[in-house]
Design a protein that fits this description.
This is Oxidoreductase. GO terms for molecular function: nucleotide binding; oxidoreductase activity. Pfam families: GFO_IDH_MocA, GFO_IDH_MocA_C3. With about 400 residues, the protein is α/β, with parallel strands linked by helices. Strands 7, 10, 11, 12, 13, 14, 15, 16, 17 and 20 form a ten-stranded mixed beta sheet that branches. It has two domains: about 15-135, 3-Layer(aba) Sandwich (Rossmann fold), CATH 3.40.50.720; about 145-300 and about 325-390, Dihydrodipicolinate Reductase, domain 2 (2-Layer Sandwich), CATH 3.30.360. The longest helix has 14 residues, at about 120-130. It starts with 16 loop residues before the first strand and ends in a 7-residue tail after the last strand. About 25% of the residues lie in helices and about 25% in strands.
């Protein structure tokens, strides 16, 4: 995907671009380290940090100096002269913060998921476009060079006719994970949508990447969605779920996820062809190509950092990797999960607490997740008696 650089926004390539980071704790720590890496290369300069409670000197990585700090995002953008804002704050705050930046002509790297509902996503995307600023959505897996390489393999017919795309994520999270913030594990907080579930937040990359490889990224590429949402933990949202997306091209996309794995492993996406398959471990940028008449081929790829890509796009028109339009189909999945009935509570005999690890485990879930990705079937179709299917409208309006 690419977007034109708005008139008058091109950056000089010889000056480090000043930026503000909103949300510097939790996952924001990863952004701090990445900003330090790019600052060392002279690409960006951390001008400010927006947090409700200022970071201590010990929380700021060495080499980033003493950036200005404030809990007032708009005022901080004004006082620092930031040209880019990296937004890594609670999901319900994304749209308002993005529009605050856009109103000041500040370009954006917005963490995934971009919004908790399709309406909020649309408000953000339309507002950013009207303001003439550029927004990159933080699906880091879509910066992998493996993605265009797999698309090319599909186009060349390397594995024959494509039957569908599966995704599998078997992760583990301790019970304390859901106590990390007031919104953690919530579907709503104080009447505001949050939708912090397995498929929409920690394993959202599996959904977005599977859709990208299926060639279904725009809203109109989705014609139907079925969801099965459940939880073993004492939370509102889902921790063990699957979704089947029917695409306009007729290829199903099935993604299964759990945060209650027996043996956590790297998530992956698999493209099923009638003469082979392509498996992509997106956190490793590693691809396994298996096809008729050939031995298995393992391939490793590089990755383009999304913040660096945003700066390059603004400097010289390099194609933007993940504009909002590239996440419309993903946001349709978020909307389906938002409007689905509340997740099913797994019966007591379907899970147990793992001694010493403070986490709940669903016996057999690892195999169920893998089977869903392998067969493009939902949990209920694989014999999970606790699974409840919700079919969403075949016609998904835009």
């Amino acid at each position: 995907m690419s977007t034109a650089v708005p008139t008058g926004t091109a950056f000089p390539t010889t000056t480090a671009v000043p930026l503000v980071l909103a949300g510097a704790r939790g996952h924001g720590r990863w952004h701090l380290e990445n900003i330090r890496r790019l600052q060392d290369k002279g690409i960006v300069r951390l001008a400010g940090i927006c947090e409700l409670t200022p970071l201590t000197p010990a929380e700021i990585p060495e080499g980033l100096g003493t950036p200005e700090q404030s809990a007032d995002f708009g005022a901080l953008l004004d006082s620092t002269g930031a040209r880019i804002a990296v937004v890594c704050t609670p999901i319900p705050t994304h749209t308002d913060l993005a529009l605050t930046a856009a109103a000041r002509g500040v370009h954006l790297l917005l963490e995934k998921p971009p919004a908790p509902s399709y309406a909020e996503f649309r408000r953000m995307a339309d507002g950013v476009a009207e303001a003439g600023v550029v927004c990159q959505i933080g699906f880091q897996s879509l910066g992998s060079h493996a993605v265009p390489a797999i698309r090319e393999l599909i186009a060349q017919g390397a594995v024959g006719e494509i039957a569908g795309v599966g995704g599998a994520g078997a992760w583990a999270r301790p019970e304390s994970y859901y106590r990390r913030a007031p919104w953690a594990g919530k579907r709503r907080l104080n009447g505001v949508d949050v939708i912090d579930g397995a498929l929409t937040n920690p394993l959202a990359h599996a959904v977005a990447t599977a859709l990208a490889l299926a060639g279904a990224t725009r809203a109109e590429d989705v014609t139907g969605i079925e969801t099965e949402l459940a939880h073993a933990n004492a939370i509102e949202s889902d921790d063990t779920s699957c979704v089947r997306i029917t695409t306009a091209g007729g290829r199903p996309v099935v993604v299964a996820a759990t945060l209650c794995a027996e043996d956590p492993d790297d998530p992956y996406v698999v493209v099923h062809g009638d003469r082979g398959r392509i498996t992509y471990w997106y956190k490793q940028d590693r691809v396994l190509l298996q096809r008729a008449g050939h031995g298995p081929e393992e391939l490793e790829y590089g990755r383009t950092d999304l913040l660096e890509n945003l700066v390059e796009h603004l400097a010289d028109g390099t194609a933007l990797l993940v504009p909002p339009a590239a996440t419309e189909a993903f946001m349709r999945v978020v909307e389906a999960i938002r409007t689905a009935p509340d997740p099913v509570t797994l019966p007591d005999d379907a899970w147990h607490l793992l001694p010493g690890e403070d986490r709940r485990v669903v016996p057999g879930i690892d195999g169920l997740v893998a089977a869903a990705a392998d067969t493009l079937a939902l949990y209920s179709e694989l014999g999970a008696t606790w699974a409840l299917t919700t079919a969403h409208p075949k016609e998904v309006s835009t």
